[in-house]
C-alpha cells in the first residue's frame, strides 16, 4: 500500500514515486522548474486537466526519498529534515538535474555543511549554467529564490558569477589572439625556415575564412554573442568540435603556427584553461574567511589559494 506524505496541505497535485505519494503545489514546482511546468500541463502525457481533486501524476524511475526531499526544499520545508549527507546530496543532484534546478541545492549544501558537495556544485554552476541572453543578476541567472539566497553568506552567488565572466573574457581574448595574426597574414605567405634552407613558403594552410567558417558551423560566430550566451562547458564542447579545414599542402617538413593541427592545439589549451581555472568554492574558507595559508591545509577540500569569498567583490555595472 502506498504511503502518502503531505508537503503542502493545500497542494493540488499528488506525485507518485513507486510506493510513495507526495501532495505538493503545482504552482510552487512550476515556478521552480520548466520541466515541472510542462509536466503539469494538460498537453503533457502525464498531465491531467485541473479539477476539484488533486491531480495524480506518475513519476517514472525516480528516487522517491530524494524527490520528497527536493519537494520539501522547494516548499521551504527543509528545516524538518535532520541531516542529509554527501551520498544523499549526490543522489539529489541527479534528480534535480533532470528537473533543471541543480543550483537550488546550494542552500541545503551550505546548511548541512557538506563541503565536498558545495565545492563540486559551485564549480558545476560556473561551468554549466548558460545565460538567457539578457543582462542578469547572479540570483536570477542561477534561479535561486530570494528566500534561499538570504540564507547564504553575502557574495556567494556573485563570486561564482564573476568567476564565470572572468573565464569567458579570458577565453575570448585567447581565441582572438588566434584569429588576429591569421586575419593579418600577408598575401605572399609566411616563410618557414629550416636549418639550411627555406623548406616551404607561401603558407596557406589555414585562411581567415576557413577559421571563421569552422567557428560559425558550431554557432561560435559572432564570437562575443556566443560567449555571452553559452555556458563554459558548451563553449568548450563546440570549440573541440570545430573543423578548421585542412589545406592541400599538409606534408610540409616543418609546420607553422597557422597550421590546422597547431590551431587545434591552441584551442585545446583554451578549453583546458576554462575547465580547470575555477576549482569551486571552499565552504570552510567561506565560513572562516580569516584563515592563514597553514590553516587552509586543514580544509576538508584541500587547496593552497584562498577559495572562499573575495575580500572585495567587484561592483556590478548597472
Automatic annotation (TrEMBL):
Pfam families: BTB. It comes from the Eukaryota. This is BTB domain-containing protein. Gene3D superfamilies: Potassium Channel Kv1.1, Chain A. InterPro entries: BTB/POZ_dom, SKP1/BTB/POZ_sf. Residues 11-83 form the BTB domain.
